[in-house]
């Protein structure tokens, strides 16, 4: 196999520290107008064959090998997009020098070139990278392929119907969704109540508090009903709620329930509290072991909401409008809303290449880059200033385009299918991923400090805040109780001063009749028994009874 290098293209992952070059951003109106025209009016192309001739003929075993050997194939490299095209060099020395392979597409061409002894002549790309069908003709790399200037496109092209009409798309070597990349948000810094609130979300805390209250009400009703049957424990409403709060914080009960219904309720609460306690402890350990990053959104639906609110804008590669067309053609509500924001409100920017898009997003918060998932994944591996969301959107198949009715189409598809089924394509991707993961390409990776192995005061302050809060509430209640007792005692004395009374011995008519006639009533003195403890208690009880019965006896005398 030989290669004739007419256009040098090497991949060096460099990231700009400033915003992307303004000259690399194309005029938005022109881009949107061309996409709207293409979406509104389907291209008038004479379809001469079914979709994917090369794909459907991938099982064909009879090839014209003698006619295919020892030929020179002209190819154009539309873009350097790892892991499909890392660099353009077919020699083994380049792999040894760089430490990683040239990419999936170059590896495929390299393997097929060895089998057929082919020579690849690299032709410089003209116009936009991949090209589009505009105004009745194809531009970019596909335009070169249609005009016969090249025999194949060395890159991962998205399989779509328009492209299959003017080229032979090989068997797909990769199924790839569209990734969403944003600038890495700031690390979690607010540790005030980290140790208390972060292990559980606020929904869990609210539900736990509600369950404690509901369980306390149920337990109060059960004890009141069963008190007469099983001589169940007697609790007040506050004590009933406090029972389940004590269970939640793993504290014992001062008195155990006697009925089986109350015992089962308490026992199941113990099991639930053990589970919650273990979950809380595990979440706390994970929280200290891994730095937390708060993402502004988790999926495409949340991103669209932020775009509507003006907090985010979309960034896309101007060299391929396929993903933009997929958004424009989609009937799903989320993509229709996204296209409205892009087309009507112009909340989208187009940059010249994925690398410039990554640099733009890296330097500017509030932007989300949509691009090939695998390519963005490697940028995220090599730079901690950007982050790639796990969930992808708009999945596509990637293939290698060849000239229409090419002699090599079926052979290429068959060999690519064999490589895919035997796992070679995934191995090449995994090898490059391992290389990127081991390299400290960006200074951020080399200076990143790992999570601390100990619990410092900054992260443990939440426990002390809870302790101080408990002390403050306890002291406040302590003072409040004394103030309440003081005012209650004062009010009691005030009521006693408004209603004075003298100790009066109740006199009934019967007792008056039994009084001896002594002639001098003033000389009558009540006989008092000797004072002792029992007499004092009886005398005090009698006085209270006489005071309470005073009004009744006086009314009888009046009658």
UniProtKB/TrEMBL annotation:
GO biological process: detection of stimulus involved in sensory perception
An example molecular function term from Gene Ontology annotations: ligand-gated monoatomic ion channel activity
Localization, UniProt: Cell membrane
GO cellular component entries: plasma membrane
Keywords: Cell membrane, Glycoprotein, Ion channel, Ion transport, Ligand-gated ion channel, Membrane, Receptor, Transmembrane, Transmembrane helix, Transport
Annotated region described as Disordered, given as residue ranges: 509-535
KW Metal-binding (keyword) present: no
Family stated for the protein in its record: Belongs to the glutamate-gated ion channel (TC 1.A.10.1) family.
PANTHER family in the record: IONOTROPIC RECEPTOR 20A-RELATED, IONOTROPIC RECEPTOR 60A
Name used for this protein in its record: Ionotropic glutamate receptor L-glutamate and glycine-binding domain-containing protein
UniProt source species: Caenorhabditis remanei (Caenorhabditis vulgaris)
